[in-house]
Amino acid sequence: MTLHSPPPVTPIERFPEQVAFHRTELAVILSIYGRMVAAGEWRDYGISSLREVAVFSIFRRTAEIPLYRIEKRPKLRGKQGMYAVIGTGGQVLKRGHELKPVLRVLERKLIRAVKD
Questions:
Q1: What stretch of H or E contains 28?
Q2: Strand, helix or coil at 85?
Q3: Checking phi first, is residue 19 left (phi over 0); if not, alpha (psi -120 to 50) or beta?
Q4: What InterPro entries does the annotation carry (predicted)?
Q5: Which burial class, exposed, middle or buried, applies to 6 when counting CB atoms under 10 A from its CB (0-12, 13-18, 19+)?
Q6: What does the alpha-carbon distance between residue 11 and residue 9 come to, in Å, rounded to a whole number?
Q7: Does the global pTM surpass 0.90?
Q8: Contact, 43 vs 61, CB < 8 A?
Q9: Could you count the other beta carbons within 10 Å of the beta carbon of residue 96?
Q10: Is the dihedral of CA 59, 44, 18, 81 positive or negative?
Q11: Rounded CA separation 12/110 (Å)
Q12: Which of 12, 14, 47, 56 has the greatest CB tally within 10 Å of its CB?
């Protein structure tokens, strides 16, 4: 029996062992988060950095399930876009290649919260 080793992986092809949000991405996310906290809509958040996805979870109260999840999946970069906003029921509210346009779905909720 002959054993074949897999071809060597170049550093460019290798995915990180843990996906995380970059500082500039967090600045954009925390900007809208801060405005929603000031409007009294959100109260807590959590960040998870996993092997294939980084998740920013937004909570109305600490002990609840997240209202929204902002996900970053680098493997979807060439397909649907690596950023997504997911609602409470698991429905994808918006997906795209750039973070700011994807987060606009949450800004609409901010306009409605301030207007009321």
A1: helix 23-38
A2: strand
A3: beta
A4: DUF2794
A5: exposed
A6: 6
A7: no
A8: yes
A9: 17
A10: positive
A11: 39
A12: 56
Q: Which amino acid is at 62?
A: T
Q: Which amino acid is at 49?
A: S
Q: What tens digit of pLDDT does each residue of 80-96 get? A: 888 999 988 889 999 98
Q: Is the Cα torsion angle 33, 36, 37, 41 positive or negative in sign?
A: negative
Contacts with 57 (C-beta within 8 Å, 6 or more apart), sequence order: 45, 46, 47, 48, 66, 68, 69
Closest by Cα among 114, 116, 104, 115 to 39: 114
Q: In the numeric block, which tokens belong to residue 67?
A: 């209202």
Residue with tokens 């958040």: 45
What pLDDT does 84 receive?
Answer: 92
Kindly report, residue by residue over 29-64, the tens digit of the pLDDT: 999 989 888 888 888 899 888 888 999 999 887 667
Q: Which amino acid is at 5?
A: S
Task: Tell me how many helices (H) and strands (E) the chain has.
Answer: 2, 5
CB 69 within 8 A of CB 86: yes
Quote the CA–CA distance of 58 and 70 in Å, as a whole number: 8
